[in-house]
Amino acid sequence: MSGYCDLILKNVSVPSGIVVDISIKDGIVVHSGSSGRAGEIIDCKGLCVLPGAIDMHVHMRGGKEQSSKETWETGTKSALAGGVTHVVDQPNCIPPVTDAFSFESRLAEAKEQAFCNFSINASVMEGADLPGMHRAGAAAFGEIFAAPSSYGEGVPEKFLRQAFREIEKIGGLATVHAETVTEGIDDSLSAHNRLRSPEGEALEVSKVIEIAPENLRLHFCHLSCPESVNLVSGKNTFEVMPHHLLLSTGMFDDLDTFAKVNPPVRDEETRHELWRYWDRIDVLASDHAPHTIADKSAEFSCAPSGIPGVGTMIPLFLALVYRKKISIQSLIDKTTVNPARILHMNCAGFEPGMRGDFTIYPKTAEIIDPERLHSLAGWTPYEGMEGVFPEKTILGGDVVYSDGEFFRGNPRWIPGDGYIE
Ligand code: DOR
Questions:
Q1: Does 286 contact ligand 1 (Cβ within 6 A)?
Q2: For the domain 51-343, what is the CATH code?
Q3: Required co-factor (predicted)?
């Protein structure tokens, strides 16, 4: 090809089996085939190259009150060191994102600190200005708490109906956290699993589907069991999290708060059953919900729910690709192609016109060690499991992570399609 590019990735083996050189200019792939001249050339022979992933469900925390758990800087560095180049932040931060003003202030914090691309979602709660946040550039509405969780109050059904109508009218995407919480003493992982049961999750999913207006774009967050996955069909979409596919209650002491998460980690049988739906899962997202070791060291009933995961999601699943448990294309579809389609955004990829975000991995896995992760949480429930971690991550043609070192390239805010400049 002719013309001068910013970066060429040479000898990239794409999932179809062919080997190409990828040329990137002004942040975008401009050619995939033979290469020309460039400011920088990286030879990827013998390595695995994936498009930068979109993690469409993360809690970046930050702000005055939650910066000990995570900041936009540490959270987005964790993302880059885990092969994620675009994070979609959930709005249950403190203060929550409820109108154009709080949206702008969240955006300013992200713009100042982020190391990877990012989008920001809008809260759905009484008094929230949904059209205002849509115009300000919210990527989606939610996660909408159809049941209470850490830093999220359950939304009453009457209001949910009204909010759905409003989101339908403006053409937004509603993302829903569906659970039913039963009264009881929440003092162990098994109790947590019982009080926020698979049946309760499925019940709430069916209620939400029933009240959703016909043309609403509806996406379910973190479905954890076959009962609820089976209910989602047609144009509605859903995501599943690594912890529901890789962890089960029996792997932990029953009082272990570090595995406390909403929806809960299920039993081993449910985890196995969920794998049977791998091909139907639209999105794999992390629900990166960092809480510090000190926060998690509280008594079970008081400990916050949530598991950090943006830095380990792709490494864990790429290790499964290497072990031939899943195909590389299925991983790319669930972490890049489908999130972009659902969010109406461009994604990274090997074809011209796609974002020039890539991650370069070695051909061997390593044992996950919390000391080598970058989240302020400082722990991971995947310690000791196998993960394949990037050697380099590229954002819009710039090397932004290389062998443990970060470089601030040109991280971008990716607004939702309601954005009016
Ligand atoms: O376990 C969870 N933690 N589930 C959620 O839905 C929220 C999250 C958090 O923000 O910590």
A1: no
A2: 3.20.20.140
A3: Zn(2+)
pLDDT at 152: 86
User: Average pLDDT, whole number, for the chain?
Assistant: 97
Contact 313, 368 (CB under 8 A): no
Cβ-contact 335, 401 below 8 angstroms: no
- Residues contacting 375, CB < 8 A, separation 6+: 70, 74, 75, 78, 288, 290, 308, 310, 311
Strands 4-13, 37-43: pairing is parallel
- For residues 1 and 326, which has the higher predicted lDDT (pLDDT)? 326
Residue 141 Cβ contacting ligand 1 at under 6 Å: no
pLDDT, position 1: 56
What dihedral angle (degrees, nearest 10) is formed by the CA atoms of 156, 157, 163, 164?
Answer: 150
* Chain centre distance of CA 404: 22
d(CA 408, CA 116): 8
Residue type for position 211 = I
For ligand 1, atom 2, which residue shows the shortest CA distance?
A: 306
- pLDDT exceeds cutoff 70 at 104: yes
Strands (E), 96-223: 117-120, 141-145, 173-177, 217-220
Residue among 68, 135, 71, 133 nearest 96 (CA): 133
Q: Is the CB of 261 under 6 A from ligand 1?
A: yes
Residue 289 CA to ligand 1 centre (angstroms): 6
Q: Which run of H or E residues covers position 4?
A: strand 4-13
The residues annotated with a catalytic role in the active site are 287
| β partners of residue 53 | 84
CA–CA gap between residue 7 and residue 178 (Å, rounded): 43
